[in-house]
Amino acid sequence: MSALLVALCGGPLWAPVQAQPAAASPPSSAAASAAAVGTAFDVVTAAPVELGAPDSPRASLAHYFEAVRTGRWDLATRYLVLEASQRPRGPELARRLKAVIDDTGWIDLETVSDSHAGHVGDGLPSHLEEVARFTVDGRNEALRMVRRSDDQGAHWAFSAATVARIDAWYGTLPDRWLRELFVSSGFEFMLLPGPLELLWWQWFALVALLLLAWLVGSLLGRATRWLLRQVAARTPSLWDDEFVASIAGPLSLAWGLMVLLVGSRHLLLLRPAARLIDGLTTAGIVFALFWALWRGTGVGARQMLDRPWARDSASARTLISVGGNLARGAIVFGGILAVLSALGYPIGTLLAGLGIGGLALAFGAQKTIENLFGSVSIAVDQPFRVGDLVSVDSVTGVIENIGLRSTRLRTADRTLISMPNGKLADLRIESYAARDRFRFTTTIGLTYGATPEQILEVCAGVERVFREHPRVWQEVVDVHFAGLGESTLDITVLAWFEVPSWAEFVDCREEALLAIVRVVQQAGADFAFPTRTVHLVSAALR
Questions:
Q1: Which of 32, 42, 320, 425 is most exposed, with minimal Cβ within 10 Å?
Q2: How many CB atoms lie within 10 A of CB 111?
Q3: How far apart are the C-alpha atoms of 333 and 258, rounded to whole Å?
Q4: Which pTM does this prediction carry?
């Protein structure tokens, strides 16, 4: 979970201040530059902060935060001005002050003076420094530090007036009972910050909440699907039943995220963490919505393909397939924008940037865009459809799929060839499926021993075969004695078969050829084959 939060935010929500204990030597310049923001009102990612002078309000505040976040409460009391009666409660007051600061708002160390004298000209005495202001029960309160010295040197500490107000501020915290419970039961470590500065008890509660959200989300998802199935069962259509079955995942995810969203409000998270979880859960719910839309688009496309008008129309099936792919692409794009918007990214700026980056996109994704427009052109013009036999660029095959990027053809050798749609739209496409009739042509070669009567009988018999065939287009049946070949007497035959497919044409062609063989045999003629006569002349005759 922590890795997910870090990845989405680009870094830790806030990083601990790496300050040296007060008893140690002041941090070097390099160490100070590596120190990160400990607390800030609206900080999302941690940034290095220069601590400045070792006796500045910023450095003292950083040392205090480092002490309390590691549970060294005795060391933290050095930065509280305590009366004699308050000293036994010093560690407790240091812990309570840190709880108040975490709940009311975060202190941005960059706004705190890094000079040993504090801010000059702020209207306060030179020994007094105001480091933050916040609201408690509608009252505007000030968090102030005073300059003081002890045996370890000069430093700044929270003023006596601030310390006197700690118990009253702490009494307004909604989680004070839980904090006191951990302290009294010996589990004080649960109040220490863990990864991403969430307290350890919050980490354990968050893990338990995730498991509870998964369990409750699954149960509520099943209950919702059961109710929707009861409603869908009352309708005569089947698409709603299939749609309810397809959104099982999105429903469970949405319910689980809503449980997580409601439950996280009771974890008393710090404001940046609460904002992050709210943004993540909201983005997840938006994702579940678009996931359901994406599933619904697939259901709608399948339902339309099952309609009688689509089953009987290859063009309708092609348009539905391409249209479904385009709709899914639009849903994915819209879902990405909606999720980014839920995460707090400026979508308006992003869309404006798309216009600026459109030229770069056109150059970088030129082939992709070309193929996309090619698929649209194929869908609109419909030079072929799924299931058609076509010949494209010396490749003959059956169209198996028309996608957004490419079209796949199954060849006679059962190999699969993919052609980019952008290139395919510009090629010469020969579609055999678009033919309304198939041409039959052949040449009958008879031997030179055939008489003219036999030739005429063969021509009449062959013409009669085609005139009597029920699938022949009667407008053109051409059977003529065409010429005298080298070894044959040639009769040409031309006819058209009105059949819808190549397979039926092959059957009709076979019937016609067998009938021609019978006609030639009945006429007493013979089929010729290539022959050559060689005359030998003796030398005496020369």
A1: 42
A2: 12
A3: 24
A4: 0.46
